[in-house]
Every structure is written in C-alpha cells, then in structure tokens.
Design a protein that fits this description.
The chain is 77% helix and 0% strand. With 196 residues, the chain is mostly helical. Helix 4 packs across helix 5.
Length: 196
Amino acid sequence: LLIPLCFVCWPLITIFVNCYNCFKYENSKGVQRTNLGEKLQASGETSSRAKLLEVCLEASFQPLLQWYLLFPVAMKNIMKYLEQEAVDYTSDELLAYISLASSIFGLAWAFTAHKATYKRGAIDVAVAPLGRAVLFISNLLLVISRMNILILFMYYFGPGEFYPGVVFLFGHFCLMVLLHNCFSNEANYFTIIFFI
C-alpha cells in the first residue's frame, strides 16, 4: 500500500523535497552552501522528472484521443481547401481544435521546462529567451510529429479501434522504462524521495 501511494504522490513529494532543499540552500553559507547547491540541483532535476512523468501519463492521452477523433474531419476539410471549396467550421469543431492546440502546447512546454532544468539556468526565459523559444519550437514539432505518427498507426487497426493503439503505447511505455532503468547512468532513480 505504501509503494503505490508513494508512486502516485511522487511529484508532490519531490516538490516538497525540492522546496526544503532550496530553503536550506538559501539559508546556508560557505562550504555547506556549495554542498547543498549540488543537492538542490539533484532534487530539482528529480522534481522536473516527476513533473514530466506526470505530464506524460496524464496529459498525453487527451490530445491523442482528441486528434484521433478530429483527424478524419481535418483531412476532409484539408481536401476541401485544396479543391478550393468553402470550408465551414462549427463552434464545436473550433473549440475542439483550440483544446487540442492548448494540450499540445502544454506538452511541448513541459518538455521544454524539463530540458531547461538540466541546463542549470543557461536557457532560462530571462537569460536566453531566444534559446528557450528555439527549444520550445523544437519540442512542439517533436510532439506534433509523434502524435501524427501514433494516430496514423492507430488508424491502421481501423476507424474506431483506439484500444489496440493504447495497448501498444502502454507496452512501449513499460519497455522504455525498463530499458531506461537498465542502461541509464542514474542508478538511484527513485531514491531521491528519501533525499532529505
């Protein structure tokens, strides 16, 4: 019971650990401050990783399902536009496209924030806004291209067959977690919870 609870609360726990380490760092001096700086960076990276995991698990299926449902309508509208016919959108379609776009932008921003954490402030918005913008655009294009590939793969099973694609995605997720934990340099992946 404790392990599933820790897994569910991991992002929240890492935020508190990071805040605690930040408080200790800001109130220290000398050699202790240097040592706590490394600890603060490590807890910040772990907190960022926890947020990214949360975003990938919670926020990635909504735009995937939205784009799966909107894809045939979008293709029909693109064909109408290419044939120079009038394309009319209903308010429901426009709201769905706005919701899809905001979900994709949110995913891209989460990946950008995660990568910026590892740069130790070098591509902070206040320090290098152009670098941050380039990284965001790169992540945005990455998210869009992967979503399109996944949707085309899911339509391979036929229209309305979303389930086999989700099963494949879950298997892919489990395999990538296993490979990451086997071959990553981060041997103590989950021990940051007890970092205090």
